[in-house]
Write a structure and sequence with these properties.
It is a single chain. Helices cover 38% and strands 9% of the residues. Strands 1-2-3-4 form a 4-stranded antiparallel beta sheet. A hairpin with a 2-residue loop joins strand 1 and strand 2. The radius of gyration is 25 Å and the shape is elongated.
């Protein structure tokens, strides 16, 4: 079986941004790409802004906007990352694996990587088509940047990568978390990195709370008492009914 090649963040962005756009408009966007004044490209939490040179010396102001990720559950994310060695190593090396995207989606409530509907745009040009070629060109520019600097998608969604990793590496022990089984360095196969992995196979909210130790002592006690009431040996299955001649 041939190994399926991973799709880069840049290609994922390009696919979302150009969904439903015809070839003629894509060609016009590529033609407009060199007119972006690269020193004026500004990537901030929630927005990408740029200036593009138009005809007759005009300057177009172009922007993409997206809401930043909510921050209320990030400490839960930090605690899970402390048990996810491969994801942390990828982030430290400037990569953003699909498994991290799925982890964010399960804990924070929405994925790190946005779909096309959540990205809005604006341009000062008066072209009738929406999105115009200037907006599509800015999408293409950002897609190319993501292939070189994938961590910029974190910046766009309002995630401080250095601050996140610093909290992950803090020496504060999570004494209420159960030890990992068999001495493995991380929880196995919680968030698959495959392109076609089913997101629904990830943890539910209740399972995440259990995983990070956010459960009451009464619940733990009740679970242990229920286990103690189980018989020591499995019950004998009833005999199968005799077949009729």
């Amino acid at each position: 079986m041939m190994e399926r090649k991973a799709v880069s963040l840049g290609e994922r962005w390009r696919r979302e941004a150009t969904r439903g756009v015809d070839d003629a408009r894509l060609a016009a966007a590529l033609d407009a790409l060199p007119s972006i004044r690269k020193p004026m490209v500004r990537i901030r939490a929630g927005s990408i802004r740029a200036e593009m040179e138009g005809s007759m010396g005009s300057i177009h102001e172009v922007s993409l906007q997206i809401r930043t990720l909510p921050q209320k559950d990030w400490m839960t994310l930090v605690r899970v990352l402390r048990r996810s060695k491969s994801i942390v190593e990828a982030l430290e090396n400037g990569r953003v694996p699909r498994s991290f995207d799925r982890l964010v989606a399960r804990i924070v409530g929405e994925p790190l990587f946005p779909d096309a509907r959540s990205v809005t745009f604006g341009c000062s040009c008066d072209l009738p088509e929406k999105p115009c070629r200037h907006v599509l060109a800015l999408h293409e520019l950002f897609a190319r940047r993501l292939d070189e600097k994938p961590w910029e998608v974190l910046m766009l969604r309002g995630v401080d990568l250095h601050g996140l990793l610093a909290k992950v590496h803090q020496a504060t022990p999570d004494d209420d978390l159960p030890p990992l089984a068999f001495g493995v360095p991380e929880e196995p196969v919680l968030y698959p990195d495959a392109e076609d992995a089913d997101l629904g196979q990830g943890l539910t909210t209740t399972q995440v709370r259990w995983f990070v130790g956010d459960v009451s002592s009464r619940l733990v006690t009740a679970a242990l008492e229920a286990l103690n009431r189980l018989p020591a040996t499995p019950a004998t299955a009833p005999p199968s009914p005799a077949k009729q001649p």
